[in-house]
């Protein structure tokens, strides 16, 4: 696919290059922030599966540089839109009162204090100012001490399995190299999610947030039910920049509140086979789902709260939200390219892509498209 064609068929890919983001994924985090105000009061963050680093760039620009994106930029835009509507309305308000300041003075940047951001990926990541990057496997137990040490180098205690100074937010955009075999891809993705959750349990502070990519497979509601035991609110979100045709979505978990006595453990990590203990003192919000197939072939779902009966497998369904401004680009649509557009190279080419060796071999054999005689 040529550069122009990809720019046309993927507006977010083009925008990412134009706005200096290392990957189009930046827009997913920004649109999640628009809906959930993720960065409010946040100074300590862990970014899992972070390469090439567009989510870390968002963190760096919002927390370290104090720029306005996502929610706060959206609030600004709302204010300006309201002002424009008021100006155009017949209300005889003093014109001056509604006037924007002449030549609009840019708002000063508001960098936050004591920001700490640690980013982890299997792949090496090009450095980003103010961010600690670790090359490690998030599914490996040895990554936990690495992370704890990176978060608190001075007060790190090797015998501890939790952070001395816990973090406000853990984000994970982990994705395996997809094989196209749906069930296998969903399984590997869920292993990444459990690994991310286990790391989050070790480092999150009470009330903290966890945002992670999921693939919506058929048993995803079991995962929601487990997350609901450790977080006050669990929602699933689909940002506009994530293709509607993909099963990708994001769980947004707020209000970290594990059951009493619960301790994250490296020897016995949570996973699909290991369930969280339920806190008997914590009121549980359970929802019962009734499914009925009508004669015309339509499935009716009826949701209703119900008392849990002994031994009954009651599942909890997480609320689902689409996020991102409706006027934002549709990730599945092709757009005409602006006339003044210049085709740009990606901001950060992959440092060590899995196809690197194949490219080298192809180059050695005389290049692409039919010139690779020597390869076979
Ligand atoms: C979709 S990319 C993340 C994009 C990133 N959020 C950004 O904004 O640039 C998925 C990443 O997951 C990483 N990954 C996959 N399995 C991993 C693992 N076991 N440990 C750490 N990183 C992993 C991949 O190396 C890849 O860089």
From TrEMBL:
Binding locations of S-adenosyl-L-methionine: 53, 55, 121, 137, 173
Source organism: Patellaria atrata CBS 101060
Record's keyword terms, sorted: Cytoplasm, Methyltransferase, S-adenosyl-L-methionine, Transferase, tRNA processing
Lineage: Eukaryota, Fungi, Dikarya, Ascomycota, Pezizomycotina
Molecular-function GO terms, alphabetical: tRNA (guanosine(34)-2'-O)-methyltransferase activity
Family classification: Belongs to the class I-like SAM-binding methyltransferase superfamily. RNA methyltransferase RlmE family. TRM7 subfamily.
One Pfam family it belongs to: FtsJ
Domain Ribosomal RNA methyltransferase FtsJ: residue ranges: 21-256
Role of this protein: Methylates the 2'-O-ribose of nucleotides at positions 32 and 34 of the tRNA anticodon loop of substrate tRNAs.
Catalyzed reactions: cytidine(32)/guanosine(34) in tRNA + 2 S-adenosyl-L-methionine = 2'-O-methylcytidine(32)/2'-O-methylguanosine(34) in tRNA + 2 S-adenosyl-L-homocysteine + 2 H(+)
Protein name: Putative tRNA (cytidine(32)/guanosine(34)-2'-O)-methyltransferase
Compartment list: Cytoplasm
Main EC class the enzyme belongs to: transferase
Main localization category: cytoplasm
Residue numbers annotated as active site: 213 (proton acceptor)
Enzyme Commission number: 2.1.1.205
A biological process from GO: cytoplasmic translation
């Amino acid at each position: 696919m040529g550069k122009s064609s990809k720019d046309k068929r993927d507006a977010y890919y083009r925008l990412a290059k134009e706005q200096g983001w290392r990957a189009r994924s930046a827009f997913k985090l920004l649109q999640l922030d628009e809906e959930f105000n993720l960065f409010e009061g946040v100074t300590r963050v862990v970014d899992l599966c972070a390469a090439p680093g567009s989510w870390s760039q968002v963190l760096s620009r919002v927390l370290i540089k104090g720029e306005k994106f996502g929610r706060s930029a959206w609030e600004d835009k709302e204010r300006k839109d309201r002002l424009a509507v008021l100006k155009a309305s017949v209300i005889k308000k003093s014109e001056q009162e509604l006037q924007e300041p002449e030549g609009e003075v840019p708002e000063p940047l508001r960098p936050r204090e004591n920001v700490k951001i640690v980013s982890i990926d299997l792949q090496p990541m090009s450095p980003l100012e103010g961010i600690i990057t670790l090359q490690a496997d998030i599914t490996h137990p040895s990554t936990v001490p690495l992370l704890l040490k990176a978060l608190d180098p001075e007060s790190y205690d090797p015998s501890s399995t939790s952070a001395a100074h816990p973090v406000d937010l853990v984000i994970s955009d982990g994705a395996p190299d997809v094989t196209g075999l749906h069930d296998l891809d969903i399984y590997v993705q869920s292993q990444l999610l459990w690994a991310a959750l286990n790391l989050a349990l070790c480092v999150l502070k009470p009330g903290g947030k966890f945002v992670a990519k999921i693939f919506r497979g058929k048993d995803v509601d079991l995962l929601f039910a487990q997350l609901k035991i450790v977080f006050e609110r669990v929602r699933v979100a689909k940002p506009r920049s994530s293709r509607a045709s993909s099963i990708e979505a994001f769980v947004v978990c707020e209000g970290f509140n594990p059951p009493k006595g619960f301790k994250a453990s490296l020897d016995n990590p949570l996973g699909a086979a290991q369930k969280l203990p339920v806190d008997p003192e914590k009121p549980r919000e359970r929802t019962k789902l009734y499914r009925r197939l009508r004669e015309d072939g339509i499935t009716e779902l009826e949701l209703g709260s119900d008392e849990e009966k002994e031994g009954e497998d009651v599942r909890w369904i997480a609320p689902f939200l689409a996020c991102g401004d409706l006027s934002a680009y549709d990730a599945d649509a092709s757009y005409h390219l602006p006339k003044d557009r210049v085709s740009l190279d990606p901001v950060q080419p992959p440092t060590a892509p899995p196809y690197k060796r194949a490219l080298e071999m192809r180059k050695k054999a005389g290049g692409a498209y039919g010139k690779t005689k020597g390869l076979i």
